[in-house]
Amino acid sequence: RERVRAMFYHAYEHYLESAFPYDELRPLTCDGQDTWGSFSLTLIDALDTLLILGNVSEFQRVVNVLQEGVDFDIDVNASVFETNIRVVGGLLSAHLLSRKAGVEVEAGWPCSGPLLRMAEEAARKLLPAFQTPTGMPYGTVNLLHGVNPGETPVTCTAGIGTFIVEFATLSHLTGDPVFEDVARKALKALWKNRSDIGLVGNHIDVITAKWVAQDAGIGAGVDSYFEYLVKGAILLQDKELMSMFLEYNKAIKNYTKFDDWYLWVQMYKGTVSMPVFQSLEAYWPGLQSLIGDVDNAMRTFLNYYTVWKQFGGLPEFYNIPQGYTVDKREGYPLRPELIESAMYLYRATRDPTLLELGRDAVESIEKISKVDCGFATIKDLRDHRLDNRMESFFLAETIKYLYLLFDPDNFIHNDGSDFDVVITPYGECVLNAGGYIFNTEAHPIDPAALHCCRKCKEEQWEVEDLMREFYSLKKTKKFTLKRQSEHGEGESAKDSEGAEKDGEKRNSKSSHSLLSCPSQSFNSKLAVLGQVFLDNS
């Protein structure tokens, strides 16, 4: 763990010294470059890692730097997918962790705050991409002008289905449903366009919904779509998303799985198109562990680990029958996926083999890729040539998952025995109790935070109506609340003359998912045996 901490600071300090405010460090020339926009991306991506390593003072400093220095009103063509997972995800995670990091939060947090406003501003810049006939987004958007005329309508599956974690969190915190709505519509469009044998391809035309690349698998171009069906289902307690994933899982096992490897197949016929393992597929055992399929996850993980041991890293593509790298795909850009799976599986099994992978990863990365100014992408695992790039995910994901693998007592692993109670305008709210959902850039989202602020404004209206009633009736007599309904939702209060309140129409009863507890409405929490007392006693 201490070696991982030292790796982080070697990379982070050199980014600050040589590359900030550019997006990424170029470790061979000790300078910086903009890659995914111009957001000081490594700083946003590394922010929650600072807190996981326990560095609250630097976390606080960086929060101030980002507030003053990051501007999304720029004439830049940005990847919708990458901006969402790195920028929106990083800002949301930092926003939700800021109180834990000792940042002085404003009244109304976590339903408001400067980092939340930045995340919302960045996400709004992405919304024009979703304005297509299918609801599936373009892959690129100009942050100032929206979608460029002539922008290609072909987007990869992951670039369409990797929004629900960040966008639903934004909707729940801000009260604006537009983000969750567009994310759900995109997910459902992919589901609707799956093949008769239950598979999705790699790239689709977002205008016509025609599949352009028809290779089906679990790796590059598709990966985080499956990941977000599972994580979205857990975060939102959404049975529909989980049932979609379980249907896909059946088809994936039927058509793509061979001896605990997963191949690429033709999406309509199920015939093998590429017998390769891609390093991006190494997230899959971790995902299997999240749905409780630990035995299968371990068997696949051990296959992938043999490849790591062969090369000291995972090549981008590995030909399974030949047992060797694929031409022009021999690099390893310090990706996190195998380490991510090891972290999840270690939480589930405590198998020491997983710690051995972690140790191997630390030794490989230090031996092969460490240079004076940071850690460099490995251009070729066969001869250990390096490339002049350190991707921001190295600090956001690779280091974070390694550290969490070796730090069983980290607050991220909280089992619910420890938590904070926060007072919001909507009542009490429990935070930091654990169960964090990592987005696909390893930014942890506290699922409890989604229950602190209402996704829609009904509860806020209820509070306002109640306060209005309170002040108008203070000079008269007490008033009573109707008996609570079976679902625990109190009716809006009536005044002594029985006048109906506008808010009552808005405060409609809703049936509750079997997966969630019914939430008590604000005014029923104020009730004592059905009455609210308004005098000074």
From TrEMBL:
Binding site for Ca(2+): 440
Cofactor(s), by name: Ca(2+)
Pfam families referenced in this protein's UniProt entry, alphabetically: Glyco_hydro_47
GO BP field: carbohydrate metabolic process; endoplasmic reticulum mannose trimming; positive regulation of retrograde protein transport, ER to cytosol; response to unfolded protein
Cellular component annotations (GO), alphabetically ordered: endoplasmic reticulum quality control compartment; membrane
Active-site residues (renumbered): 82, 223, 316, 337
UniProt-annotated stretches for the region Disordered: 482-518
Subcellular location: Endoplasmic reticulum
Superkingdom, natural source: Eukaryota
Enzyme Commission (EC) number: 3.2.1.-
Basic and acidic residues bias: start-end ranges: 483-507
UniProt keywords, alphabetically: Calcium, Endoplasmic reticulum, Glycoprotein, Glycosidase, Hydrolase, Metal-binding, Unfolded protein response
Protein's UniProt keywords contain Protein biosynthesis: no
GO function term, MF aspect, one: calcium ion binding
Annotated SUPFAM superfamilies: Seven-hairpin glycosidases (SSF48225)
Record InterPro entries: 6hp_glycosidase-like_sf, EDEM1/2/3, Glyco_hydro_47, Seven-hairpin_glycosidases
Presence of keyword Endoplasmic reticulum: yes
Function: Involved in the endoplasmic reticulum-associated degradation (ERAD) pathway that targets misfolded glycoproteins for degradation in an N-glycan-dependent manner. May initiate ERAD by promoting the first mannose trimming step of ERAD substrates, from Man9GlcNAc2 to Man8GlcNAc2. Seems to recognize and bind to exposed hydrophobic regions in target proteins.
Family: Belongs to the glycosyl hydrolase 47 family.
Protein name: alpha-1,2-Mannosidase
Organism: Sclerurus mexicanus (tawny-throated leaftosser)
Gene symbol of the encoding locus: Edem2
